[in-house]
C-alpha cells in the first residue's frame, strides 16, 4: 500500500502542471487587465505602465508562468494584486469555512442519499420508489443558487426561522479555535455558540447538499438493485435472517464501494464547487474569495485557489481508493 500511495502522490506532479498551465493561460489571456481596476478609468498610460512593471505584468508570459511555478514549489502562491496580502495566508484563513460547509453538506447528502436509495431499491416500483426518483430528479435539476435563494426567502425572510447569511462565532476562547466553528463550540462547551453556528450553516449546507443527495441516491438505488438479486442475499433470506439485517449487513455493505466512490467525488466537488453557494449566503470561504478575485482579475488569488482545490480533489480520490480495502479485503493495491 505504501508503494501505491507514493505512486499516486507522484502522479500529482503532472496534474499540478496541467492545472497550473490551464489556469494561467485562462487568466492572462481571457481576463481583463487588473491595472485598470486598481487605478480606475482615468489613469494615464504612464501610470498603467508603471504599475504593470511593479506587478511584473510587463514581463513575457513564460517568465510570469515560471515565477508562478517557482512559488508553488516553495509553498508560496504570491501576493494579491489588489490587497497585497499573501494568497497562501488568505486561503488558509478561509479554507476552514469552506471545509466546514463541505463536510456538513456531504454528511447530509450521504445520510439522506443512502436512505432514499436503499428504500427506493427495497420498495422498487412502488409509490415510495417513484417519490424517491422524483426527489432525485429535482435535486439534479434545480440550480443550487436558485434553491439557495428560495430557502432564504422561505425560512429567513418569510418565516424568520434562520439567519439570511454569514458565519459567526460567539464567545469561544482562542485556544479552542480551529476554524471549524461547530467543532470549536462543542470543544469549548459553549452551547450558545453551537446553536448560533448551527443556525447559520443549515441553509447553505442544505442548498449545497441537494445535488449530491440526488447523485448518491441514484447510485445507491441502482447498486442495491444489483446486489439484492445476488445468490448470497437469497441464501440469507432463506436462512430466516431478519430482512433489516439482510439489507444492512449483506446487501448495503457489498454495495458500498461504488457508493463510497461517488461520495468521495462529491466531497471533492463540494470543496471546489461551493462558489455559488458561498456567494449567495455570504459565506466567507475560498469560493466567495475566488469569485471576488475573478471579478477583479486578481491573477495570483485565482491561480492559487484553483491549484489548492485541484490538489485537494486528487487527495480525496486517493483516500477513497484506500477505503476500498477496508470495505473489501480482497482488493489489493499494486
UniProtKB/TrEMBL annotation:
Kindly list the residue ranges recorded as spanning the membrane: 9-31, 101-122, 134-157, 201-220, 256-281, 301-324
Q: Which GO terms describe its cellular component?
A: plasma membrane
Q: Does the keyword Transport apply?
A: yes
* Record localization: Cell membrane
Q: Which InterPro entries match?
A: BPD_transp_1_N (IPR045621), MetI-like (IPR000515), MetI-like_sf (IPR035906)
Give the principal location in a single coarse category: membrane
GO term, biological process aspect, one:
transmembrane transport
Which Pfam families does the record cross-reference, listed alphabetically?
Answer: BPD_transp_1, BPD_transp_1_N
Specify whether Zinc is a keyword of the entry: no
Which part of the chain is the ABC transmembrane type-1 domain? 95-324
Name the keywords, alphabetized. Cell membrane, Membrane, Transmembrane, Transmembrane helix, Transport
Identify its membrane topology class: Multi-pass membrane protein
Family note: Belongs to the binding-protein-dependent transport system permease family.
Task: Supply the PANTHER family for this chain.
Answer: DIPEPTIDE TRANSPORT SYSTEM PERMEASE PROTEIN DPPB-RELATED
- What is this protein identified as? ABC transporter permease subunit
Amino acid at each position: 500500500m505504501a508503494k501505491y500511495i507514493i505512486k499516486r502522490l507522484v502522479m500529482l506532479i503532472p496534474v499540478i502542471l496541467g492545472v497550473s498551465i490551464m489556469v494561467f493561460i485562462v487568466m492572462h489571456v481571457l481576463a481583463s487587465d487588473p491595472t485598470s481596476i486598481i487605478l480606475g478609468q482615468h489613469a494615464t498610460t504612464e501610470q498603467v505602465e508603471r504599475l504593470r512593471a511593479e506587478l511584473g505584468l510587463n514581463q513575457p508570459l513564460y517568465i510570469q508562468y515560471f515565477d508562478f511555478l517557482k512559488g508553488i514549489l516553495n509553498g508560496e502562491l504570491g501576493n494579491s494584486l489588489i490587497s497585497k496580502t499573501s494568497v497562501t495566508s488568505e486561503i488558509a484563513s478561509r479554507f476552514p469555512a469552506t471545509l466546514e460547509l463541505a463536510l456538513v453538506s456531504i454528511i447530509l447528502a450521504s445520510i439522506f442519499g443512502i436512505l432514499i436509495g436503499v428504500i427506493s431499491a427495497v420498495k422498487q416500483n412502488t409509490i415510495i420508489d417513484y417519490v424517491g426518483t422524483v426527489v432525485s430528479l429535482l435535486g439534479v435539476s434545480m440550480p443550487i443558487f436558485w434553491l439557495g435563494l428560495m430557502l432564504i426567502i422561505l425560512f429567513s425572510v418569510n418565516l424568520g426561522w434562520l439567519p439570511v447569511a454569514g458565519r459567526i462565532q460567539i464567545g469561544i476562547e482562542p485556544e479552542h479555535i480551529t476554524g471549524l466553528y461547530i467543532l470549536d463550540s462543542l470543544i469549548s462547551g459553549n452551547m450558545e455558540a453551537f446553536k448560533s453556528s448551527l443556525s447559520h450553516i443549515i441553509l447553505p449546507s442544505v442548498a449545497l447538499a441537494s445535488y449530491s443527495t440526488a447523485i448518491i441516491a441514484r447510485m445507491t438505488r441502482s447498486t442495491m438493485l444489483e446486489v439484492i438479486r445476488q445468490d448470497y442475499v437469497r441464501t440469507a433470506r432463506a436462512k430466516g435472517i431478519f430482512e433489516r439485517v439482510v439489507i444492512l449487513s449483506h446487501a448495503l455493505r457489498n454495495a458500498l464501494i461504488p457508493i463510497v466512490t461517488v461520495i468521495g467525488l462529491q466531497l471533492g466537488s463540494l470543496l471546489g464547487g461551493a462558489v455559488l453557494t458561498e456567494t449567495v449566503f455570504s459565506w466567507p470561504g475560498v469560493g466567495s474569495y475566488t469569485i471576488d478575485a475573478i471579478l477583479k482579475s486578481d491573477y495570483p488569488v485565482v491561480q492559487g485557489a484553483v491549484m489548492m482545490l485541484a490538489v485537494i480533489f486528487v487527495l480525496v480520490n486517493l483516500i477513497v481508493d484506500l477505503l476500498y480495502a477496508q470495505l473489501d479485503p480482497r482488493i489489493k493495491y499494486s
